[in-house]
Amino acid sequence: MPDGIVLSCTGGRYGVYVDGHRLEAVLRGRMKHRSDETVLVGDRVVLALHGPEAATIEGIHPRRTLLRRRSPGRARGVRALAANIDQVVVVGAARMPDWDPALMDRFTAVAEANDLPIVIVVNKADLDASATAHGVPYRQAGYPVIVTSATAGTGLGALRRQLAGAVSLFTGPTGVGKSTLLNALVPGLTLRTAVVSRRSHAGRHTTVAAEMHPLGDEGFVVDTPGLRDIGLWGLDPLEVGAAFPEFASRRDGCRFDNCRHRDEPSCAVRAAVDRGDIAGTRYTSYRRLLDEAEAAARPWT
Ligand SMILES: Nc1nc2c(ncn2[C@@H]2O[C@H](COP(=O)(O)OP(=O)(O)OP(=O)(O)O)[C@@H](O)[C@H]2O)c(=O)[nH]1
Ligand SMILES: [Mg+2]
Ligand SMILES: [Zn+2]
Fold first, then answer.
1. What is the CATH number of the domain that holds 23?
2. Are 207 and 275 part of one and the same domain?
3. Which of 180, 186, 201, 206 should be mutated for ligand 1, with most atoms under 8 A from CB?
4. What is the CATH classification number for the domain harbouring 277?
């Protein structure tokens, strides 16, 4: 039985990549009702072929990584989004829609909570002469930052090199150009893209489901629907600090072991913010996420 890689899951049908070809498969009956056997984009699966077009998924290989979003409150639960992702590419637009540090930092925090490496892309650089400035807080955090214009074709070589040989999941706000970038990177790809509405400067969720595409023979890219907000996801308050690598690397310098980097005396993180070694926008995002995590952790709210 051959192995395949799941490219898409929609309505019980799976697009699976086998030996350089895509075929359609369904789940073998006994897998359908087992939640621990939910098949995800990126899963490596065992197939049984029943002819050139018909195949069933018989099992899932152990996952190297799992990208999950957690949601607290009444809808508490974990939603698995994709398997075997090597890196998360968080895309933002320099303009149209405006660069939104608070939203970008939610995306990076979710990827960090999943222990996945992060790459930051500042797209639509053709619309903003100072696009590079948006990336500075992320360079300071230690993330690779690539400034691109999908439409003018700038920065695509650097992005392609960053993607080579890896499975990369593209995420970020809606309308920032994730699908347009992937169309520019992958020969023959024609993902749907849409004009960002002038009035709201917001996209309209053109991409509706995660879908993976082979990047030649040099890896895979996953396009995902953009989000306007990714709300609370139930991170433990202590995990919030860990989701900001430039904080985590400095916390040994804080006077208190359990320092939350708020008003505690001798806080190395706040000192780094004051010196400009940590961006103020990152600190603001951290405080907001910490407040949310603490509120969510209190049972009476
Ligand atoms: N000026 C400019 N426009 C761009 C660039 N990249 C994408 N766009 C435009 O931005 C709009 C939205 O692009 P999409 O690729 O659909 O955005 P998306 O991030 O995939 O959006 P969702 O699928 O809703 O998450 C389209 O009109 C694109 O042509 C760019 O680098 N510069
Ligand atoms: Mg899209
Ligand atoms: Zn501190």
1. 2.40.50.140
2. no
3. 180
4. 1.10.40.50
All residues at 6 or more sequence positions from 288 whose CB lies less than 8 Å from its CB, including other chains: 102
Q: Which ligand is nearest to the CA of 254?
A: 3
CB-ligand 1 contact for 179 (6 Å cutoff): yes
Could you report the per-residue pLDDT of 145-169, keeping only the tens digit for each?
999 999 999 999 999 999 999 999 9
What atom of ligand 1 comes closest to residue 173's alpha carbon? 25
Nearest bound ligand to CA 183?
A: 1
Query: Where a domain ends, among 201, 223, 245?
Result: 223
- Domain closes at, from 162, 196, 223: 223
207 lines ligand 1 (CB under 6 A): yes
Domain assignment of residue 48, given as a range: 3-60
Residue 231's pLDDT is: 57
Dihedrals φ, ψ of 62, to 5°? Answer: -55, 145
Predicted local confidence at residue 203, as pLDDT = 47
Instruction: Give me the residues near ligand 2 (ion), CB cutoff below 5 Å.
Output: 178-179, 206-207
Considering the domain architecture, whether residues 75 and 172 belong to the same structural domain is answered as yes
Can you give the pLDDT at residue 217? 77
pLDDT at 230 (0 to 100): 66
- Whether 230 maps to a domain, the answer reads no
Low-confidence ranges of the chain (pLDDT < 70): 33-37, 70-77, 196-205, 228-234, 299-301
Model's pTM, two decimal places? Answer: 0.93
Q: How far is CA 170 from the centre of its chain?
A: 6
CATH number at residue 87: 3.40.50.300
